[in-house]
Amino acid sequence: MAALLELANISKRFGGVVVADGISLMVERGAAVGIVGPNGAGKTTLFGVISGDVRPDGGSVVFDGARINRLDPGARCRLGIGRTYQVPKPFERMNVFENVLIAAQQGGRQRGASSHGRAIASLERCGLAERANRNAGSLGLLDRKRLELARALATGPRLLLLDEVAGGLTEPEVRDLVAVVRSIRDEGTAVIWIEHVVRALLDAVERLLCLSGGTFIADGEPRQVLESAAVREVYLGTDELAIEGIA
Question: What pTM does this model have?
Answer without folding.
Answer: 0.92
